[in-house]
Amino acid sequence: MMKKIDGWLTAPKGFLAGGVTAGLKKSGKPDLAVVYSEVPAACGAVFTQNKMCAAPVLVDREVAQGDFARGIVVNSGCANACTGLKGLADAREMQSFAAGLWQVKLNEIFVCSTGVIGAFMPMDIVRKGIKNAIEVMGRDGGLACAEAIQTTDTFIKHSAYTTVIGGKEVTVAGIAKGAGMIAPNMATMLTFLTTDGAVEPALLKRMVKRVADRSYNMVVVDGDTSTNDSMIVLANGLAGNDRITDENHPDYEAFYEALQAVAVDLAKMIAHDGEGATKFLEVNVVGAKNFAEAKTAAMAIAKSPLVKTAFFGEDPNWGRIVCAAGYSGAEMIADKVNLSIGGIRLVEKGLNCNVALETLKPIMAEKEISMEIDLAAGEAKATVWTCDFSYEYVKINGEYHT
Amino acid sequence: MMKKIDGWLTAPKGFLAGGVTAGLKKSGKPDLAVVYSEVPAACGAVFTQNKMCAAPVLVDREVAQGDFARGIVVNSGCANACTGLKGLADAREMQSFAAGLWQVKLNEIFVCSTGVIGAFMPMDIVRKGIKNAIEVMGRDGGLACAEAIQTTDTFIKHSAYTTVIGGKEVTVAGIAKGAGMIAPNMATMLTFLTTDGAVEPALLKRMVKRVADRSYNMVVVDGDTSTNDSMIVLANGLAGNDRITDENHPDYEAFYEALQAVAVDLAKMIAHDGEGATKFLEVNVVGAKNFAEAKTAAMAIAKSPLVKTAFFGEDPNWGRIVCAAGYSGAEMIADKVNLSIGGIRLVEKGLNCNVALETLKPIMAEKEISMEIDLAAGEAKATVWTCDFSYEYVKINGEYHT
What we know:
By secondary structure, chain A is an alpha+beta fold. Chain A has eleven helices and 15 strands. Residues 181-186 of chain A have low confidence and may be disordered. The interface between A and B is large, with 69 and 69 residues.
């Protein structure tokens, strides 16, 4: 029933979006975006766990406690992080300025920033940008909105699905930015999802956390968690489906499936666009004691610079994969471990299968490579998406100058 | 009283050492080393926590439970890891073969291996090598021994100190290998310390753990913990000092100081020799809630690819350092954090000090750079040593082919 469509944040009913060049980026590229729901939308959000979180995250944590929100204001070019009380006042002013123009309540507006850490927001430019973006926003502003949240991304990340819930067509759409958990001196993974599905706010908040844990939280580029990471979901109910009230509601799974489909698409795009990435890697851990340990082992493999550089070099260096699982802390039975790359078994019961290098060469040359390790310690599994580690990563992050 | 000297493992009284080319390395370089004490030596050791630990580590864990040992047999070129029951039998045979030649008990001999993971030991070559090494070992074999344990190291790591304990001169010496927690498809940090100090075996075991926690466990190159990491200390008592029995013994601190001095020297050399390193970095965390959190924050900074590539690029990108501390999980007061690089304050109470780039340029150009971050959450501190992350790291680990 669920169907992938080509649409932006405005694909669901009742959402407007826009993006403009305010002048925050030296490049002159679009840097101010807005998303707006014509009616109050149930909201849910998750944010960075970084203790040095940016000012807008502090503001948004308050907004996310409310049931409903109306809009999101986003700037790129300045992260408003490590900016103290002045930064907090600036984030609040972005919020109140947009709320005033939209004639909605202060705590119905989310604010997000991404860009240089430690610099203050040039508020004259920001105010002018918000005003312009709100003026131009519309049903056709989805692409402009997505463009204005990018920093070092090499492609624009968006995804949308429709599904039928209780006889009504419900649409879920999303955009994301991020190429590295932190881009060069920039910060942030930002992602926004809109839907016209009708859902109880308290339930949406739980669903957002569940979706994040199964999508964005399963992606790692360099292991660095930014100061600004934010995921915000707005559900305005205009599809007219019977409101989904809890996990036992008959439509819960269909709605969850659509949210997750959008989030997983975007999460994978972030790994594809990892700084300097030449390959997309899928790390499957099976046979773990529980999900947490499966994820721990998969993350250890996905973060290992030795594993990532081996894939860059197209070297089927399975010892590094097994070794990373071994030091991850996850329980494993060393002499029962199995490992496959691209479907070819390389390690069986902890021993080298001595597969010929020629057999593996075409698999290692692929642009998307999947591996699976069986820890032989239980029934749980997890999948993490990452990318390889290239000269280009060092170049992007080493040659960039503050 | 403590004095640095130029000596090898044979600098302490009663130790013999040797190294030969057995033929395990394709390069024809020395690959089989032995260390021997003329009298039983109190022993202490710590090993990798990796669940995929190598066969010799399994054997050595048993040896380390005993009070006294006589020797260590080490090969490079083959890690004897992921080799199952056959690998374990091979490690035991190395042990029994050496014990037979030395006419000592089986469980008085440590065995260590470093090299390729997943390959079986060519035991004919190993036996011949052990026999030759034992034949040539002597008081002048320290350098040859150190050479034979190297893999991708770019220099030989050794350190020695003498100190006076209860009127007797006590010598502590050590060697180490390791350039990356794992070298390309090789495994292992190995380090061996010898001393003629007299110490109760049970106390030595505690001291070795304490020393490791304050030296090798404070070094990180790429965050990958190998399958073979081993630290072994032999103390044969031939210096004739009053035997140190416990932590309250008047000579405890002096002896500990000498052990730690050797271990810290070697640990720093490992960071200096990190794969592809162009800079040695010292990360000091102060103002942490406790030592564990101080270390956690320092390790997060030292492991961050973004921090490491920034130093490679000589970019004083302080946002990445503060950000890494922020996501480490250590408690910190965001608006009280201070950060200095090379003694220059860059962040004060969480805010950018706007130091001119020209001021920082000469500091960032140094080959050894120290940084200090104050988390403002307590009184504890920790220091971690690491290196930068260069194109060369990617080259070494990506272009190497299995």
